[in-house]
TrEMBL record:
Homotetramer. Residues 53-423 form the Amidohydrolase-related domain. One of its GO terms (biological process) is allantoin catabolic process. It comes from Streptomyces solincola. This is allantoinase. Its cofactor is Zn(2+). Keywords: Hydrolase, Metal-binding, Purine metabolism, Zinc. InterPro entries: Allantoinase, Amidohydro-rel, DHOase/Allantoinase_Hydrolase, Metal-dep_hydrolase_composite, Metal_Hydrolase. Pfam families: Amidohydro_1 (PF01979). GO terms for molecular function: allantoinase activity; cobalt ion binding; zinc ion binding.
Amino acid sequence: MEVTLVLRSTRVVTPEGTRPASVAVAGERIAAVLPYDAKIPGGARLEDVGDHVVLPGLVDTHVHVNDPGRTEWEGFWTATRAAAAGGITTIVDMPLNSLPPTTTVGNLRVKQDTARPKAHVDVGFWGGALPDNVGDLRPLHDAGVYGFKCFLSPSGVDEFPQLDQDQLAASLAEIAGFDGLMIVHAEDPHHLDAAPQVSSPHYADFLASRPRDAENTAIAHLVDQARRLGARVHVLHLSSSDALPLIAAARREGVRVTVETCPHFLTLTAEEVPDGATEFKCCPPIREAANQDALWDGLADGTIDAIVSDHSPSTADLKTPDFSTAWGGISSLQLGLPAIWTEARRRGHSLDDVARWMSTAPAALAGLDAKGAIEAGRDADFAVLAPDETFTVDPAALHHRNQVTAYAGKTLHGVVKSTWLRGARIADHGAPAEPTGRLLERNK
Ligand SMILES: [Zn+2]
């Protein structure tokens, strides 16, 4: 196919490192990564972005879009516009908080029909594993979900109950039968029950109610089950750095376990949360600064694979000042890249690292083979970033449905200049274009 576009920059982030390059695009795919001064093929349009960095489009595999059913919290129109503005070209939607949840093939079709006309970026779906839907898992897998989410403690919504250890084993055995993936909210319910639960506006009280041991124990049980059943499992939103040694040990012995963490755990600390500021509430919780340092060490040594948003917004009225009753979820979809880059650069990490954590690794987790890197054959998805420019977060300027965010007022490094999806610009200086996103299905 003929080259239609050449994207040129002095800093293109490729799997082999960052270098001056001209990325030749044929239609929707990357045809070749050429030398910077390569001759532009006749008929191709040149887009020279100067010294701005060209990253692979980010892949966010942990987004709660809540549409249909709780669209006042977030919807496909608003979420995918925010994603495009933030340099994200693919999201994978979580199976809960929408109504219906994505727990049957029929429900998946409802969600796909809802998303199709609103998608500004490419959208895939996770299925859900409930106590009573083991028989739905293979049909959902065949229908194209990328894996299954389960909870081991209450999820926060009644229609998505958690699995006990026997139910987890039954679901894992079923999923292992077709080499599927189980992604797990790992907090142990018994440890949560044993922790002090008090109605309070103080963050320390909330933190004490979601102890590290709840995560550590749940992850240990999960690793045991994965080892026993040969199942492939993924730990969602790791907060407790105490679990890193056991995860690293499990991986060394060949247990198939991967791990993600989130921008809020890597950039915000328990020490800074003001009284009543429940925009900082999520489960598991943001922990102390020392814990954050250890999570960064886990990224640096490869124990943690990916950084994804866990964007889980609600309307402002559900963020009551009492931490025990406020909705748990942090809204950050549009801000993940600058939030992470601001902290990564301070800690001496490169944009190559950021691309690996926020694009390559999440794409690999879900098996999105066309996404996740700037190399020939992959989709022409790019985020063009001015890494040294700064901005101050103004919630009113975000495309999220609700302007509640723990990042309000923060000054961040990294301004997304444009975002490109399959060879076409889908956001320009924060302004999203018309929706051209596609619905993605596993192995399609
Ligand atoms: Zn989540």
